[in-house]
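Ticket reopened. Same input as before:
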Amino acid sequence: MNIPLNITKTIHDWLFSIMPEGVATVTEWVIVAAAYLALFAVVGLYLVLLERKVAAWFQLRLGPNRVGPWGIFQTMADALKLVSKELTSNTKIDKFLYNLAPYFVILSSLIAIGVFPFSRQFQALDINIGIFFLFAISSIGVIGILLAGWSSNNKFSMIGAMRSGLQTISYELSVGLSMLTMVLLTGSLQLSEIIEVQRTGGWLIIQGHIPAIIAFMIFMIAGTAETNRAPFDLVEAESELGAGFHTEYSGMKFAYFFLAEFINMFIIASIAVVLFFGGWLSPFGITDDITWFPESIWFVIKVLGIIFLMMWFRWTFPRLRVDQLLTLEWKYLLPINLVNLVLMAIIIWLNWTI
Amino acid sequence: METILFYILSALIVIFSIASVSSRKILRAVTYLLFVLIAISGIYFLVDYSFLGAVQLTVYGGGVIVLIIFSVLLVHHIELELEVTPLKKKIIAGLISATGLGITLWAIYTFPFTNATTYKSIEVADIGRKLLGYGDGGFILPFEVISVLLLAVIIGAIVIAKGKKLNE
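Engineering reply: fixed in the latest deploy. New output:
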């Protein structure tokens, strides 16, 4: 097994200089795991805050503004409250599956986050099938939702889970095909190589022009549906199903589902940034020569931009009905996607890329 | 390190396979089966064949298992338990499994394995070239046959599922 842990070369060298090799490797794994868990918590909590602030802005309110300056500690306080809450459960549930389900959802997004190159050095796992691996991992998460809905022994949870299965199986196709369209341009599935391609040729959305823009639009629609966010939030439609598949969950287990939704949004935004907007590369290469410049800033700025777009969707479009959801995917997105794939192949074959 | 991980994964596969066939609640059995499949993909990642590992996760984890769970969700209530199989069937199933295990073990222990001298990590591009290659060692014919078969299956599924229109 070959895991290049190249977060920082110096820590690596230092660890190996003071410890025997086996111990140093394990220590390194623990440090990387801790770093990613911290990142996970921070991203999750602050995306919740951002969502509330953006929602408030769209609705001409102030949003959370009591805990700390501009309410920046609000979600931390919420998290502490959730940790201290009692974990309730029904008597007629399937205990084992009920307790297992949140971990499926949270683990799949936690594994996926390890693949992204946040900067030149900051990447835990750079495998040669990067994009495909992300696709594979994200298909595991839906199992948690299905199990949660079934094991709660509650018809609203059940309906939520059924809708989720339907939605994820359908929209996974579009996500996969639109990623495939971009992979045609790069010729590699490895995320670090995809970014290297964009260093010389410009961002992929510019290189691939028309088909790339179509692919980006499809990716954003299907990606929003994959994360079960509005306007595709039939899974937990508050006005119809209570809280959908996690109606019966309380305390930290509810928080796992809640956090996973925001982390999944972060993951979709990160994939979009890597595939279309050059990852951690600076626009026009303005900071390429400055060696000390933290490139992850560009990554974060771009990701926040995409996330803002997804929040904008949420407060702009009304929720779709189930039949509209399936019509959109199978009658519009999928055919457009397939034609787009051929179009991209033709453009590359005739060398019409910019 | 790799040896330890291999034994952990193998132990997971064995334990959850047994749990999967002995559980009386159907969705738990499916979940144990999912653990088995994930552990197998873990072994693929361990031997540095990450493409097959990811395929295993997508096809079996994300595809087959989700479909099984979906059908269980549609037809099975949470309080139902599977009935206990009669002893005769258990014995037959046990004998068949033991035969299968025996044949596999015999094949593994009699095959003269040699240590690989040259090692090369397999790229997706190589797999793609082989799949579409019509020269020596190419797989274009089986690839096309499978595509046609899958197309036939999809059309057949649509024809069966569509049924008759209500007004006819």
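The first helix of chain A runs from residue 9 to 18. Chain A touches chain B at residues 1-2, 22, 25, 92-94, 96-97, 100, 127-129, 132-133, 135-137, 139-140, 142-143, 146-147, 149-151, 153, 158, 161-162, 165, 168-169, 172, 187-189 (CB under 8 Å). Please confirm and we'll close it.
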